[in-house]
Amino acid sequence: RICLCLSALFLVSSARARSAEPTPEAIWIEGEAATSHDFNNHNWYRSSSVAMDLLSPGTPGGESGDWLCHFQRGEAAQSKQAVFEFETQEKGPFAIWIRANPHSPGNTFQIDGAAEQPIPRTQNREYINLHSNRAGEGGWIDIRFLDWLYLGSYALEPGSHSLTLNVHPAPQGDGNIQAHLGIDAIAIVNFDWGPA
Question: Please, where are the H alpha helices in the chain?
């Protein structure tokens, strides 16, 4: 009888544990859908020399996508920010990814207004040269690249949250001061997922 009672208790506990597991939740935000921002959408990030079809929600070789971008250099370079508000229905942890330009060392992010953390540099998860002549003569290369960057896992409660992406002026590889960032998309998930 004791064994039967323990077995029944184990089954009930297991059922409760399974029912307590959060429902898989995925949140997708286009970079250009920021709740608020003071980016300048500089033409250098949006000109005909940029392969806009490689940006979400575009189609490679077809329809153009879009992104939120900023570029300033020299004495004109100033700190800017973009805020993305979102709602979670389930309890975390939530992994946060951004598909963005990885080539400025000064940029940071904040979750729910917490302390700024550095945005990771290139992680080679989907490292794409966005120059439209990347496969042409000379194989053009500049800083207009795109990569999926993992910002970490966060114990978010159900409700309203925000992700803030900050652009800060910083010396680049050639010593010039620049403030720049391009944000294509944001993915927030509470299950195992990663760009492939």
Answer: 2-20
| Residue 94: both structure tokens together | 């939530």
pTM score:
0.85
Q: How many CB atoms lie within 10 A of CB 14?
A: 10
Helix (H, G, I), strand (E, B) or coil at 157: coil
CB 101 within 8 A of CB 170: no
Copy the structure tokens of residue 73.
Answer: 């250099």
Closest CA to 130 of 196, 45, 30: 45
Q: Return d(Cα 31, Cα 66) in angstroms, integer.
A: 8
Q: How far apart are CA 128 and CA 102, in angstroms?
A: 10
Contacts of 173 (CB under 8 A, 6+ apart): none
Q: Where are the beta strands (DSSP E) in the chain?
A: 26-30, 36-37, 68-73, 80-88, 94-100, 108-111, 117-118, 128-129, 145-154, 159-167, 170-171, 177-189
pLDDT in tens, 96-127: 999 999 988 889 999 999 999 999 988 888 88
